[in-house]
UniProtKB/TrEMBL annotation:
UniProt GO BP: amino acid biosynthetic process; aromatic amino acid family biosynthetic process; chorismate biosynthetic process
Protein name per the record: Shikimate kinase
Residues holding substrate: D49, R73, G95, R152
Similarity annotation: Belongs to the shikimate kinase family.
Organism: Brevundimonas halotolerans
GO molecular function: ATP binding; magnesium ion binding; shikimate kinase activity
Reaction catalyzed: shikimate + ATP = 3-phosphoshikimate + ADP + H(+)
Subunit structure, as described in the record: Monomer.
Gene that encodes it: aroK
Protein's pathway: Metabolic intermediate biosynthesis; chorismate biosynthesis; chorismate from D-erythrose 4-phosphate and phosphoenolpyruvate: step 5/7
A GO CC term assigned to this protein in UniProt: cytosol
Length: 190
């Protein structure tokens, strides 16, 4: 976990009493925006994939190639449980983490979930830049993301808050999330 550092903007008035879990497709910006959101909120940040790599002592790609997706998902579920049951933080989950029913139930029960959604063409352009995503190797990113969206979007819809992020600056996405969290808390208080 990375401790939060100071940020240019003042801390938000959003009250945080549980982990804020960012969910959404790979490449939507959960890790990058999550770090900035954590700074804004004065919280620690954890990236699910990084935590899995540290726990396993190998990269996500290596886990996939040596043990397969099923074993990766089992390890991911254990790491998500450990992180969510700890002190409040901003947590960038892996895109498929919530496909596990136990992880999804845990997040729904113990975290505030934020679905980061973006245009698939934008996400495809982002993920084309790096060859580190095992589920995209040798596949057309846009077609793969479309298939994932068909399956995952109905699951992601369980989120407490949904925000559309896009081609704007990461700080704009952070602002959008903070506003959505404030509105969510206002709605809960009424």
């Amino acid at each position: 976990m990375t401790p939060a550092a100071s940020d240019a903007k003042p801390a938000s008035t959003v009250t945080v009493d549980r982990t804020i879990a960012l969910i959404g497709l790979m490449g939507v910006g959960k890790s990058t925006v999550g770090r900035r959101l954590a700074r804004r909120l004065g919280l620690p940040f954890a990236d699910g994939d990084t935590e899995i790599e540290e726990a396993a002592g190998m990269t996500v790609s290596d886990i996939f190639s040596l043990y397969g997706e099923e074993e990766f998902r089992a390890g991911e579920a254990r790491v998500m449980k450990r992180l969510v049951e700890g002190p409040p933080m901003v947590l960038a989950t892996g895109g498929g983490a919530v496909m596990n029913p136990e992880t999804r139930a845990l997040l729904k029960d113990k975290a505030l979930t934020v679905w980061m959604r973006a245009d698939l063409q934008v996400v495809a352009e982002r993920v084309r830049r790096r060859d580190t995503r095992p589920l995209l190797r040798g596949r057309d990113p846009l077609e793969t993301l479309k298939r994932m969206a068909e399956v995952r979007y109905p699951i992601y819809a369980f989120a407490d808050v949904t925000v559309d992020v896009g081609t704007g600056a990461h700080s704009q996405s952070v602002d959008t999330i903070v506003e959505a969290l404030a509105a969510y808390h206002q709605g809960q208080a009424s």
